[in-house]
Amino acid sequence: MANDKDFFICRCEEVTLREIEEVIDEGYHTIDDVKRITRAGMGLCQGRSCGKVIARIISQKTGKPLEEVLQTGYRFPVRTEKLKALEEEGPSDAENN
Ligand code: FES
Question: Is the minimum distance from the CB of 50 to ligand 1 under 6 angstroms?
Fold first, then answer.
């Protein structure tokens, strides 16, 4: 029987709140730790959907400030850019000098 902790925090890797809280209780207190143990944040979106939620859960359970949790392992998602967009920008000022 499912309860209120059996919902997905990381939908890409199907990792539930219960699983994340269990690894935090076992002593894994960084985003990278939780990622390595559960694979949360390693799915198709690379943590865009779940990364900050996982950080907040770690912060709430450990009492660490959210900023501290985010500094130790959360890499902001990078979006791809078409090379054509860079070409249209032209050379930077540094290249003109
Ligand atoms: S929702 Fe976690 S990696 Fe996409």
Answer: yes
What confidence tens digit (pLDDT) does each residue in 16-74 have?
Answer: 999 999 999 999 999 999 999 999 999 999 898 999 999 999 999 999 999 999 886 66
The verdict on domain 8-76 having CATH code 3.20.20.70 is no
Q: Which helix (H) or strand (E) holds 31?
A: helix 31-38
CA nearest ligand 1 atom 1, residue: 10
Place of tokens 């902001």: 76
Q: What residue spans define the domains of the chain? A: 8-76
d(C-alpha 40, C-alpha 94), whole Å: 41
Task: Tell me which H or E stretch contains 56.
Answer: helix 51-62
Task: Please indicate, yes or no, whether the overall pTM of this predicted structure exceeds 0.85.
Answer: no
